[in-house]
């Protein structure tokens, strides 16, 4: 009697829930089972994308087909056999929803990936001569179909796009270690136990890491064995970080390597400018994933926010044109941030700025008490002991990207004067007393109690306690930007008072429902595009 395939799967699941031993024996028995009446079509082979590095795809390089196994039928058979097994995905990965949307979190390295990496090591062993691997050799990718199958079966595990022909450099970096090829120099220096020195913002020359044209095969195997149990998303942390964390300095170093070796960034000169760009990229990355101001990126950050540093680098690596780029590697956005900080730091972004200089931000928009708390790291802890370029970037983004929940948290911390986790009337009065004096000087005659009542009426949100706002509740309120404007800035309060009430509220409500990651924010894009056009126009 023929058993329906769905009924069979139900039986397997029952065996798994009732007896893991029985289930293991079933899997072992069906792993070699073949259905002669069914033919599984091979996956269609897409066109190979153009490599972002022209130096990595040279038709003049030696092809070592004679050194590799070319039995594609064997590869296909192995793939089809694995398709017969009803894999329990939850044992390996979970689809999760982080702060910035859905992503896949892998608990362990899938067995099929482990097999692929072992096969790659065996292939590299065939390629070595006297234990030396020539990184420039161009080979036909015998693992192409396997990688396509893994990308389909385990979404989000690999961020690179498999290619039919590639160099051993690419194969080692992306297929074996799951590290973008733009970071090859850093990877190979770590592999050979060379230290990766941090570059200061004031450094005038690029780091002099060794450029590798070949690698010792034994050193590849040794280093791979030390990280082989680590999933692809965590490998960038394990390889370039320390104590399972990536610090700001280490992410700055990674971003700098991307800028130095991505051909689209060749126009950025001299090194001081490249370095400031990388520094800006790192600060922008931390704005989204580090609202607590710990200045580290780790597995916990990834699980909470779903932001992948590897994916960001793979994405920019694949782009032949970076004009209008939205990610942390957007050049136009860097240019705006750089010029704004230079304006307040007397033209030197390597220097700290004073509280007096910060007070002049955006034509003295914020009150003295607000600037004092920003300057002392109450919105988010400072990177170092003084208010510098990275801290200014966090402050600028919190000001400009007012539809971001990260921005809301920054200003909540500024407003929570007693640090009790709530914004109460005493917190609000602390700022409004200063604002009243400003309003009196311009003849508005506004009283503190009047503003407190207006705040309650204007934000149109029902809080659990009438006189206390929690961060969670305020994030749910689409008009939180109005709330902070009325407390912190006499200028913005006047603008709020003179607005068309209907149009103003609708605009802020719409922006409050938008994306929370600042690179995707329409408010941020409007800001930097207008600022960039103004700056370029001034230069012309």
How would you summarize the topology of this molecule?
Blueprint: H1 5-18, H2 20-30, H3 72-83, E1 93-98, E2 101-106, H4 111-127, E3 132-134, E4 138-140, H5 144-153, E5 165-167, H6 168-176, H7 184-191, E6 214-216, H8 217-227, H9 232-240, E7 245-247, H10 248-261, H11 271-289, E8 296-298, H12 299-305, H13 309-317, H14 331-344, H15 355-359, H16 368-375, H17 389-400, H18 405-415, E9 422-424, H19 425-441, H20 448-458, E10 468-470, H21 471-476, H22 480-488, H23 490-497, H24 501-512, H25 522-539
Antiparallel strand pairs: 1-2, 3-6, 4-5, 7-8, 9-10
Structure in a nutshell:
With 540 residues, this protein is mainly alpha-helical. The protein has 25 helices and 10 strands. The strands form 5 sheets. It has a two-stranded antiparallel ribbon with strand order 1-2. A two-stranded antiparallel sheet has the order 3-6. Strands 4-5 form a two-stranded antiparallel sheet.
């Amino acid at each position: 009697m023929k058993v329906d395939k769905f009924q069979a799967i139900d039986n397997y699941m029952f065996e798994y829930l009732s007896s893991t031993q029985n289930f293991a024996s079933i899997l072992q028995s069906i792993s070699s089972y073949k259905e002669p009446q069914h033919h599984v079509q091979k996956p269609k082979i897409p066109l190979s994308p153009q490599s972002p590095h022209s130096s990595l795809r040279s038709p003049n390089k030696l092809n070592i087909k004679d050194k590799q196994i070319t039995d594609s039928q064997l590869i296909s058979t192995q793939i089809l056999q694995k398709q017969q097994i009803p894999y329990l995905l939850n044992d390996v990965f979970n689809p999760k929803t982080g702060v910035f949307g859905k992503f896949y979190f892998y608990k362990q390295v899938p067995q099929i990936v482990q097999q692929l990496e072992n096969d790659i090591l065996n292939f590299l062993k065939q390629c070595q001569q006297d234990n030396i691997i020539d990184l420039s050799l161009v080979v036909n990718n015998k693992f192409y179909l396997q990688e396509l199958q893994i990308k389909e079966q385990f979404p989000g595990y690999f961020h690179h796009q498999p290619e039919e022909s590639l160099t051993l450099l690419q194969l080692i970096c992306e297929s074996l270690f799951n590290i973008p090829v733009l970071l090859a120099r850093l990877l190979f220096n770590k592999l050979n136990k060379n230290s990766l020195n941090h570059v200061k913002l004031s450094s005038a020359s690029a780091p002099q890491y060794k450029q590798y044209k070949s690698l010792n095969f034994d050193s590849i195997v040794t280093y791979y064995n030390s990280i082989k149990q680590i999933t692809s998303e965590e490998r960038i942390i394990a390889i370039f970080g320390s104590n399972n964390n990536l610090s700001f300095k280490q992410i700055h170093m990674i971003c700098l390597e991307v800028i130095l070796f991505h051909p689209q960034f060749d126009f950025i000169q001299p090194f001081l400018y490249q370095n400031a760009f990388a520094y800006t990229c790192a600060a922008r990355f931390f704005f989204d994933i580090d609202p607590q101001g710990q200045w580290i990126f780790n597995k916990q950050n990834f699980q909470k926010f779903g932001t992948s540093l590897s994916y960001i680098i793979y994405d920019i690596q694949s782009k032949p044109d970076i004009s209008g780029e939205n990610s942390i590697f957007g050049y136009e956005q860097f240019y705006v941030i750089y010029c704004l900080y230079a304006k307040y730091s007397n033209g030197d972004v390597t220097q700290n700025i004073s509280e007096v200089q910060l007070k002049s931000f955006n034509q003295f928009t914020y009150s003295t008490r607000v600037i004092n708390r920003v300057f002392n790291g109450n919105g988010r802890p400072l990177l170092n002991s003084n208010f510098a370029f990275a801290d200014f970037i966090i402050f600028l983004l919190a000001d400009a990207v007012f539809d971001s929940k990260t921005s809301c948290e920054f200003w909540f911390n500024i407003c929570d004067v007693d640090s009790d986790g709530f914004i109460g009337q005493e917190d609000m009065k602390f700022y409004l007393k200063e604002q009243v004096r400003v309003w009196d000087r311009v003849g508005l005659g506004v009283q503190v109690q009047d503003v407190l009542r207006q705040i309650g009426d204007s934000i149109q949100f029902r809080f659990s306690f009438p006189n206390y706002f929690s961060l969670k509740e305020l994030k749910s309120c689409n008009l939180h930007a109005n709330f902070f404007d009325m407390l912190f800035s006499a200028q913005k309060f006047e603008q709020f008072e003179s607005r068309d009430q209907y149009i103003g509220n609708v605009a802020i409500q719409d922006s409050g429902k938008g994306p929370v990651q600042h690179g995707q924010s329409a408010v941020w894009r409007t800001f930097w595009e207008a600022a960039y056009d103004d700056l370029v126009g001034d230069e012309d």
